[in-house]
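Question (not urgent): is this output format expected?
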Amino acid sequence: MKRNYKVFLLGLLLAVASCSFTTKEFDANSDKDEVLIELISYVLSKGHYDPKNINDEFSGNVYKSYLTGIDARKRYFLKEDIEEFEQYEDQIDDQINAHKIDFFNLTYNKLQQRLEETKDYYPEILAKSFNFDEEEEIDTDYDKIDYASSKAELKERWRKQLKFTTLSTYYDLKSEEEAKAEEDETYKPKSDAELEKEARETTKSSLDEFYDLNEDLERKDWFSIYVNSIVEEFDPHTFYFAPRDKERFDIQMSGSLEGIGARLQKKMDNIKVVEIISGGPAWRSEELEVGDLIQKVKQEDEKEPVNIIGMPIDDAVDLIKGPKGTKVTLTVKKVDGTVEDITLERDIVEIEETYAKSAMVNKNDRNYGLINLPRFYFDMEDAKNRTAASDIKKEIIELKKEKMDGLVIDLRNNGGGSLATVIDIAGLFIEEGPVVQVKSGTGDREVLTDDDDDILWDGPLVILVNELSASASEILAAAMQDYKRAIIIGSKQTYGKGTVQNVIDLNRWMKNSDLGDMGALKVTTQKFYRVNGGSTQLEGVKSDVVVPDRYSYIDIGEKDMENPLPWDQIEPADYEEWDGYIDFDKTLAKSKKRMAESKQLQLIDESAKWISEQRNEDVYPLNYSTYAQQIKENEELAKRFDSITDYKTDLSFVSLPYEQEMFKQDTTLQEKRTRWHENLSKDVYVEEAVNVLEDLSEGVERKSKLANIKN
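Got this back:
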């Protein structure tokens, strides 16, 4: 395929542009944190699309953001601590410019002191019974609440929070007991005193785990929060990755990792298996199970295993994962209490839910395909490996074998990913032409095009979006909308992220340094624009057919973030609209009419308004009777929305033949697909997408007949 791969060079643009300043030297003998501050501020000043002035206003914003980041609920710091910190409120800019971290050191040391003090609060408070008959309430609007003026006031704040948490658990336990008693007349429910004690024990157990995990945090973890409070002042998508965070980001983008194929979680001192990833080594061996506790890890070249009980989970995971083909032996305490050694050969583990998946549905003797794309994934290490574009192409080919008459691309909740894959995917649906425009901070404009005039799918196309469809999703939806190649169905607008980021390895400046891995910086270097010249920044992509959903009245988009870049526009690219449809506008009108008359969507809209109202509640009662009454009233109000989940279309979905063959060896995958198909059959948005495809298909058929008559 002769596609334009200019877009792959985007990741290199900053590297090339920065050649003029890569010669800058950083003192490799200084404190690592101070060097990191100097390095990041330097890269941002030279490489960010719209560098900020690091001044007193900048300092004040970082100050507030950082304190919120480390003590959002104001349950650690005292007012006297804040008074001590305030000397730095307008000096963080000076600290950054001088590459000093006095403010961080002060807050870090004080936080560790307060964490240790509050660690003693909850066992003492939870050792005594709560009186749920008292008339009390708790205000959870932490932005408006001041810091506690004394330890006694702070401890009282903890008491209310713990009572609120325990009350919630107590209510649930009591409801469960009442339900059991209704089902079985011989059942003797637990007393209120027993339930109250059990609820307190549950609260204590959760906090035990919290403080246990907190002890695993190192100074560098807290420093990352401080660094990100600085870099996020530039825009919401500029972000510092500590070395381990960068590794997680790479896995998220590629959808694969090298290891045993198990998701792990720390539970107190134990490393617990919480999921076996379908198709991975652990899944194939059938020896490791969900619920197993991993106690020791031994590499194939080691004589003695390493005990990982009590080890931070990141360190434990580092020992367990490893290169493909190597073996690791795990000493595991099974769910039944027995202990055994399990040897697994590591392999490439593909995280299946990251990847594109497809299904077929038949309506009125026509076959329609649906492809769900959770993310625009690609391998940052090797562009030849599996990508969203190659998978979409494969799925379309398989769908065409089943005589597909129309296609839905579901981009709902797709937060974006690789810009390169967008160009490739768009090229599957249009002849050669521009897909997106990119502008740098210097004003240079580049039009990224599909240079291949081959079209893999020239039939009816619908794209589903919602408020969480962002970045690369918006590029594809916008291009298909501008070309009038697809009808966009979804929320009033998509997320509104119209910026391009590059991930820069900070170690390039630290050659011959013994400071260790400095991590990476994701920097906003460019903005992208539709082929019609408009930006998707803040405004997103406005759907052709607007349908309400649960996010309709919730502040969730780029416009609701801190420090977003502004909307603007540039000149349009040279492109021609698609002429494959005959009834495009008529189809839109019919769809809008159906949506306006849909009782299901009217109910969803009412539900979305109600959810928004509930989210604005800040004050809650700590009296059981009042609390239970409020829940009862809310449940009564919510009952009118129960039918939303009961909704059922007359559509049924099936997997493609190649995947059905896989089910013979992979029953887990089959179960996942069965659940997905069930959800699709209840999805009013998918139902309308199929309706639109049917209308477009009829128009395409009429156009074909007219063409034949003229010939």
